[in-house]
């Protein structure tokens, strides 16, 4: 008999408990699969709908219980969950987790440990909430060589950008609303500065390319610097802003990976992925582009993904996660040498700054689509290398401190 | 040792052969899985890259070969494949097929037959080409109750509508181009009159609702009647035309299912799904909306889906297809009693017809957004029942024969 141990009873943990215990002849009731113990910080505190005898504050009550063959780790704490997951695997228990920090840092190690012990570790909920992207990648790489991953992978920042666009508000205003709604953390750094997204991109890219893609090799820029005037200028040029995670494998065995604000055409599918929705696109040499769209976070979506993994373990219909290889070695080439169109905004105080800006721009770039409004110069360039663009922005920053630029992605679905 | 028998060596069959025989240490080479025999109409005709000794024109050479444990049926012929698939299952061979006609008519029977014989039948490629939608549905219904399916499920008609919109061409012009490009059949009936889509909707809906949804219960209207003037009028009103497959379960155990031209808002994701791309969206009570987007047809996409199924059979990592139940009984309630906004175009010859049209419209509908151009009245209504709308169109057809209407879907992602 397979019993389940749950580490964590926060939002996702409660969601998992509810789905598993929702009666009406569901899979768990039919097969008599039950949650036997739940690890919480304070076992004396009552939890609505959950029997007190299930609760414990001692991880060993779960890890050392031979009847428990499956650990569901949804505490969201790196420090507590990482040792618990390792121990569980060593004790030959299967593991399902939603912890993207642990998976982005230790995927290979944990998969190896699982393999050694004849068990498995699944982590669908670590990226893209309810979107079944991990399994889709595992399936796709059996036949295809994937050379590109693109995605909107963070609900909080996508919500902020969508609301800025729709309601013509500035970044800080919307961030405050999102915080009041519980949509953004009090300390929003992980979301708005791209660390959360970059972890997810590490996981996706490593799986897609069969090579460990280090977090440090992902060029990451904050989304904080997008102003309402940028969004309106982009709109006039026919684009919308998105906070995009991207990685691409090139023919010379190098890769580029980035988490940056970008502009994409309004006639693309991706441009209309708004609010809390996430989208992940992969590019296979046979299948072409596949895109997956759904709620990227939230109690229900994440709990759904966790429980789907649990069912896979219990029915043994698990794809070969433990046989994944990360043997390929690719070098990061940054994103500086590849050509893109760029959007550029330069704030100017007076005619002198205006003249200097225009001078630098026209001396350096051939084809420019330029407009001026409210003390700001907005422009769209032709294709330039990232290297060229950052040199140009360096020069402009001697004229004024307020220079902002972003890549334009034209070939997106 | 598992050997594979291939029924059919047309476009998809050739694609399957190529993927399986593409060396460089792929899954098939590594595990020594091979295609042993290929059924073709004329075994004496040479085929580029395929050894002549593999070919046979006698199905029994494959079906009666005990070494062959898996049949891949990609002839695309109902008459030849249906008996071959049945016989294969009875002989305890697994089956992978892309034939949507067979699956839409006999899914339940064939799954039962597979179960009786301890084998399985997979059919991912029967809907949505390379999009892994069948497996995603099977996974989703383990946890969710799905109450809605929506999709653009036919590449040919989506290509036609996209091209009409982008290049301002009329339906017949684009159809001819599509035929010249080999994108549309010489007899395009199955595509443009909705029969192809309706079969796919039968398969998806039956899986989602656990009930056999009969093809006859799907209200199907041709896409032929959309004119360039309709597309331009829709654009002015803020919409685009799509040929949409939809089914929905209602609380009173009834369902509505349709394949019809519809108008959807330009700010939706679905409105930007163009050309040969397909999209399928499902709605689960826990997961919310999930959408899957990719190439809906073509050699590579379809062959990819077939081979993915083949790998699932060979690695026994098959989800429980043969345990699917179709025991629920829902009655079709048509699509007439539910409320929608509608788009309406009435062509008029003279002032008398104009006056009569306006009179009927304003007498019957309260809020109307109306425009007039080149002898045509275009309008968008408030929410009305389908029943009311068809009565109204009946009345208008006494004024002029050329009346066209389409539902507007507002709540689409």
UniProtKB/TrEMBL annotation, chains A, B:
Active site, UniProt feature: 200
Residue sites binding NADPH per the record: 100
Protein name (Swiss-Prot/TrEMBL): Homoserine dehydrogenase
GO biological process terms, semicolon-separated: methionine biosynthetic process; threonine biosynthetic process
MF annotations from Gene Ontology: homoserine dehydrogenase activity; NADP binding
Key word Lipid biosynthesis present: no
Signal peptide: none
Organism of derivation: Anaerofustis stercorihominis
UniProt: L-homoserine binding residues: 185
Keyword line: Amino-acid biosynthesis, Methionine biosynthesis, NADP, Oxidoreductase, Sodium, Threonine biosynthesis
Catalytic reaction equation(s): L-homoserine + NADP(+) = L-aspartate 4-semialdehyde + NADPH + H(+)
Binding site for NADP(+): 7-14
Pathway: Amino-acid biosynthesis; L-methionine biosynthesis via de novo pathway; L-homoserine from L-aspartate: step 3/3; Amino-acid biosynthesis; L-threonine biosynthesis; L-threonine from L-aspartate: step 3/5
InterPro entries membership: Asp/hSer_DH_NAD-bd (IPR005106), HDH (IPR016204), HDH_cat (IPR001342), HDH_CS (IPR019811), NAD(P)-bd_dom_sf (IPR036291)
SUPFAM superfamilies: Glyceraldehyde-3-phosphate dehydrogenase-like, C-terminal domain, NAD(P)-binding Rossmann-fold domains
């Amino acid at each position: 008999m397979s019993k389940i141990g749950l580490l964590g009873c926060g939002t996702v943990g409660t969601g998992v408990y509810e789905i598993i215990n929702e009666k009406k002849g569901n899979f768990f009731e039919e097969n008599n699969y039950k949650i036997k113990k739940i690890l919480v910080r304070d076992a004396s505190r009552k939890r609505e709908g959950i029997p007190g005898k299930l609760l414990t504050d001692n991880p060993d009550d779960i890890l050392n219980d031979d009847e428990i063959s499956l650990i569901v780790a949804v505490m969201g704490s790196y420090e507590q969950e990482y040792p618990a997951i390792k121990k569980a695997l060593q004790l030959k228990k299967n593991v399902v987790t939603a912890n993207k920090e642990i998976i982005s840092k230790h995927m290979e190690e944990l998969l190896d440990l699982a393999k050694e012990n004849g068990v498995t570790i699944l982590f669908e909920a670590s990226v893209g909430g309810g979107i079944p992207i991990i399994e889709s990648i595992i399936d796709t790489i059996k036949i295809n060589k994937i050379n590109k991953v693109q995605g909107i992978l963070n609900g909080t920042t996508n919500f902020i950008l969508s609301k800025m666009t729709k309601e013509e508000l500035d970044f800080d205003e919307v961030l405050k609303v999102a915080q009041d709604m519980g949509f953004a953390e009090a300390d929003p750094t992980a979301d708005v500065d791209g660390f959360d997204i970059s972890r997810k991109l590490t996981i996706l890219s490593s799986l897609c390319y069969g090579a460990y893609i280090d977090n440090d090799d992902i060029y990451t820029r904050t989304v904080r610097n997008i102003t309402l005037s940028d969004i309106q200028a982009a709109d006039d040029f026919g684009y919308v802003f998105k906070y995009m995670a991207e990685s691409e494998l090139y023919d010379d065995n190098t890769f580029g990976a980035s988490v940056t604000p970008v502009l994409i055409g309004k006639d693309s599918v991706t441009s209309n992925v708004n609010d809390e929705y996430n989208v992940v696109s992969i590019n296979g040499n046979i299948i072409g582009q596949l895109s997956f769209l759904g709620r990227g976070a939230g109690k229900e979506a994440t709990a759904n993904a966790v429980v789907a993994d649990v069912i896979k373990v219990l029915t043994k219909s698990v794809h070969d996660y433990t046989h994944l290889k990360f043997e390929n070695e690719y070098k990061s080439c940054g994103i500086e040498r590849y050509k893109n169109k760029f959007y550029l905004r330069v704030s100017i105080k007076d005619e002198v700054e205006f003249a200097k800006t225009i001078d630098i721009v026209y001396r350096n770039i051939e084809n420019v689509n330029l407009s001026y409004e409210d003390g700001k110069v907005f422009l769209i360039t032709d294709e330039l290398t990232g290297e060229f663009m950052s040199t140009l922005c360096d020069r402009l920053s001697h004229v004024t401190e307020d220079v902002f630029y972003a890549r334009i992605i034209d070939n997106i679905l």
